[in-house]
Amino acid sequence: MTDAQTQKLLTTITQSVDKCTKCRLHKWRTRSVPGAGSPTATIVFVGEAPGFNEDEQGLPFVGRAGQLLSQLLAENKIPRQSVWIGNIIKCRPPENRDPMVDEIRACSPYLEKQIETINPKIIVTLGRFAMAHFIKEGSISENHGKVFRVKSRLVLPLYHPAAALRNTNVLEILRKDFTMIGKVTRGEAEIVELKKDKAGDDNQIPLI
C-alpha cells in the first residue's frame, strides 16, 4: 500500500468515526476524536478515551496528560509527528467515566482498522483499558514496562499519563518504562510470548 493509499483509507475511517452513532456516546460528544499522527508510523500509542480538551479540539492527548506524553516523547528523542496516537474509544464518556463494555465493543473495530492500515511495529498502550484490548492476561501493575508479542506486533503496556499526573511514584515508573520504546526499536528488549488465547481476539475486522 502506498503512503497516499494509506492516508486515503485513514481519512475514510475518520469520516466514518465522525458520523458514527453505534453507541450512546455520540449523543454527548462535541467532536469525535478519531486519532492523529503519521500514517506511516512505526510506533502507535493507544489510550483509553478522549477527555474534555480532546472533545473540544477533536485531537487526541492535547490536555495535561497529552503535554506529559509530548514531554516523555521529547525526552526519548521521539518526534511526536513521527508517531500515531489514538484511543480505544473515539468519543468522550460523560464526566470522563470509564468506558463501558458495549461502548468498547462498538468502537474498537475503528482502532483495529486504523492499526491494520498503519501497520506499526510497536503498539504502546496507555492505561489498563488500552492494555486489556490487546493483552487479556495480567493487570497493568504486573505488565507495565514489559514487551509482549501479540500476533505479529509488539505491545508495550504503560501507565496512563493522567495517572502519572496524580501520583509521583507512577510518574517515575512511567518515565523509566518509556525508555523501553528505544530498546524495542534497537532490538534490545526481552519479548514475552503470549499464548494465542491469552492475546486479543482473533475476530476479523469488519469493513467500514
What would you say about this model in short?
The chain is of the alpha/beta class and 208 residues long. The chain has one domain: Uracil-DNA Glycosylase, subunit E (3-Layer(aba) Sandwich). The chain is 41% helix and 14% strand.
Task: Tell me what you see in this structure.
It is built from 9 helices and 7 strands; from the N terminus they run H-E-E-H-H-E-H-E-H-H-E-E-H-H-H-E. Strands 1-3-2-4-6-5-7 form a 7-stranded mixed sheet. Residues 197-208 have low confidence and may be disordered. Helix 1 (3-18) runs antiparallel to helix 4 (101-118). It has 208 residues and is of the alpha/beta class. It has a single domain (3-198), classed as Uracil-DNA glycosylase-like domain (Uracil-DNA Glycosylase, subunit E, 3-Layer(aba) Sandwich).
Q: Superfamily at the CATH H level?
A: Uracil-DNA glycosylase-like domain
- Per DSSP, what share of the residues sits in E-state strands of 2 or more residues? 5-15%
Query: What structural class is derived from the secondary structure elements?
Result: alpha/beta
How many β-strand runs? Answer: 7
Main sheet? 7 strands, mixed
How many H/I helices?
A: 9
CATH architecture: 3-Layer(aba) Sandwich
**Cα Rg:** 16 Å
Q: Low-confidence parts, pLDDT < 50 over ≥5 residues? A: 197-208
Mean pLDDT: 93
* Principal-axis shape: globular
Name the strands of the widest sheet in spatial order.
Answer: 1-3-2-4-6-5-7
Named CATH topology: Uracil-DNA Glycosylase, subunit E
The residue fraction in helices comes out at 40-55%
Number of domains: 1
End-to-end distance = 18 Å
- The helix-strand sequence is HEEHHEHEHHEEHHHE
Can you identify the CATH class?
Answer: Alpha Beta
